[in-house]
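Help wanted!
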Amino acid sequence: MRKPSLRTYRVVALFLLACLLFNYPVLALFNVGATAVGVPVLYVYIFLAWAFTIVAAAVVIEGGN
Amino acid sequence: MLQGWVIVTASFAYIGLLFCVAWFADRRAAAGRSVISNAWVYSLSLAVYATAWTFYGSVGRAATDGVGFLPIYLGPTLVMLLGWFMLRKMVRIARLNRTTSLADFVASRYGKSALVGGLVTVIAVIGILPYISLQLKAVSTSFQLLLGYPEIAMPAKAASLVVMQDTAFYVALFMALFAIAFGTRQLDAAERHEGMVAAIAFESIVKLVAFVAVGVYVAYFMYDGLGDIFEHAVSRPDLEVLMAPLGGAAGSYANWVWLTVLSMAAIVFLPRQFQMAVIENTDERHLRRAAWAFPLYMLAINVFVLPIAFGGLLHFPQGGVDADTFVLTLPMSQKAEGLALLVFIGGLSAATGMVIVETVALSTMICNDLVMPVLLRVRAFRLTEQRDLSSLLLDIRRASIVALLMGGYFYYLLAGEAYALVSIGLISFAAAAQFAPAVIGGLYWRGGTRLGALAGLVAGFSVWTYTLLLPAFAKSGWLAVELLERGPWGIELLRPTQLFGLAGLDQITHAMIWSMIANVGAYVIGSVARRQSAVEHAQATLFVDVYQQTGEPGSAWSGATSAAALQTLVGRFLGPGRAVELFTAYAKQRGVHGVDELEGDRELVRFAELQLAGTIGAASARTMVATVAREEPLGLEEVMTIIDEASQVIAYSHRLEEKQRELEAATQELKAANERLKELDRLKDDFISTVTHELRTPLTSIRAFSEILHDNPDLDPAERRRFLGLVIKESERLTRLINQVLDLAKIESGLAEWRPSELDLREIVLEAVNATSAIFKSRGVGVETRLAASVPAVMADRDRLMQVLLNLLSNAAKFCTPGTGRVEVRLTSGAGTIRVEVEDNGVGISPEDQALIFEKFRQVGDTLTDKPPGTGLGLAICRRIVDHFGGRLWVRSELGRGSVFSFDLPAPAAARRVANA
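Answered by r_m:
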């Protein structure tokens, strides 16, 4: 059994964070009628959180150790 | 300009382009310069996930429940994060075992069981068929819509058309030809389709470009940016609920979570995704790029879904236009003909991509895991005697593809209108999710067995059929709707959409909860019910511990066959020519000249089995090899014994390792103890030789003077007197030295007598200063005392303490320069301790000497040239005395600046209590 690398822990942590971001109750916080720059905040939030997850994944998984 | 012939020509031109891409990729692959061996291409090929359902259906779903379509794409994002662990393991296993499909993978894991493979194939075909029909429906609907241009009229119901005039039928036919051309051109031992993958990656770009183009057009040309669309939408009361759609009537959080879970399973276990992600993977490292690039693709293709949905709802306020068609109808309504055509091509690419990969994957499964096992087992076909079966294999696959597309078409004809696009897709997702327990369990749990896998698949699939497929049939009018409303035989508890009274969930969530409980439960119970067979155990270990393995997996074949027989066998499935090539290459690798020289040993049998597995699947390959080679007669009991022995040996070696570590630690300790003893021994020797030396010096001088006095009786009286004085002085020194050595020895051996009593340190310090005042005066050194007015009494031996003080004071006097020397004695009391300090402004002690001076016979200065007065034992004794009373003696000093010798003594508990009170 090899010891998991630091990268492994980071990826798992990111996975857990993403699970939290796209779940109740965090979603419920943004599920309000208000708009940000004219767009409903729920939509803005989901796409921003999604983009953040992707960028973080790129940095963690493809970045140097 | 959008006449029928324009659309058809554009479609064919597009498909021709695809052929060119595929042909180019195949040619490059043949030249050894693969275009698909690239992380970007791999990521794009995974985007076959985005089908016509994504292209048209997402907007439809967004129009009814806002963000409800997003979990379908967020789930894969989550899975791809973990892809580096889970998918990589699957890729590694698939490569080692030459896995050809999902069914083959599962069958191989559970003891190369043809039954498991067959069951997976059946579930996959039944589950995916509606999904294929969905693609046909999307293409035919979009074609007819475009054909009606400039009118925007919803196409007629499919059932009212005659088959021969139905576009969807021809679409299905063309797609079948297309899939056959891409997927079954040749048999390959690795079952890879370079051309197909390249074409799919290309299609992924086309559909993304088309969809984003519509999005930009709607958002920035029809409306004034995203904000403008939503501003209009807010003013519509019926659309307000879509601004914050979660938790309300449009979708509960439970549905959201289950949809995410469902799509997490789908991205791995849909046959086409497994084909692309695992089978067609050329390099494990591509998964790193795909982990973020594929989610990025999905983000990009979803950004404009909501703007298009709202744009459509605003643009067609009176309804009548299906939201599933907004992507196409919005450009049509603006007379944007070129864009409409691009959208049609985009939808076509989404649909063809899915259909090609799905049917190729399914046809491989049908051929290898359903048809071949039956054909090979039924003797009447005499298949085992045929010389070349490779064309038969290809024909079976081609026939399967045609059958699948015709099946999809007729499903569409009969049931396709009952649901919106999204519902059909989700039913297929739920079927694919049934593979999750058997595959994930098989990857990480060695105990998962064939029986468990069979039980889990049957249970999960049955619940899926009951809770999703039956209601779908009922809604299509094939079954009485009463079944849904009142349950079978009027038992309400068994209603398919509210099983056991579980209500308030949408249909997919409801079905997922029950099917997963049944599936996982049956898998676990089945696995623990009975022991694994030897083959199962071997395969389980092979899968779970794949990273621990080096090279090719071992084999259970005995080497009782000939190379020629094996080559003939492989030739029957791969073609004789290809077999000769493979065996010649293998012979070269083994270092022999030709196939004739190869021995039919177990490595060769294993090699042949792998080649066959890559073509006809693990289960059939095993059956075929068994016809020419004998399987090792290894009973379950024997394997278990071997394994038990092995685990005992491992446990034993663990214990040995532990023992060894303990021994090493003990050895270390012993070594250290030995070092200490040696050091002590050396110190003792040093001590004795030093003492002897120190004793001899005064003795020698006493003897010398005595001899002078003895030999010269007529010595001058004054001289005689001086010599006698010296003899007395040396004798005194000798006595002092012997006393101190004895003293030290007593203290060290613990034999010294201590007479502790309560003492006032002030009094003792003053007495000691008085006693040494003569020395100070004679050396011209001033002495001062600065004593606290009152200090707590200490428990100590008066004489010993006096000895310490006298020693420190006389040392101070000794090392001060006569005339300018000053000595200060301080007495202070702190928390629980009393401190005495003797400070002088003498020569000082260098830092390296400060630790040494407390050792026996260590005196500062060059002992050869400049012998300081004293015996070198004083401070050693002082330290031991202070230590004995629980205190501590130390020095602070700087060369040329003087030194401070200090010692602390603990104030007794009684005194401390008083001080604290």
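OP: Thanks! One thing I noticed: Chain B touches chain A through 39 residues (CB under 8 Å).
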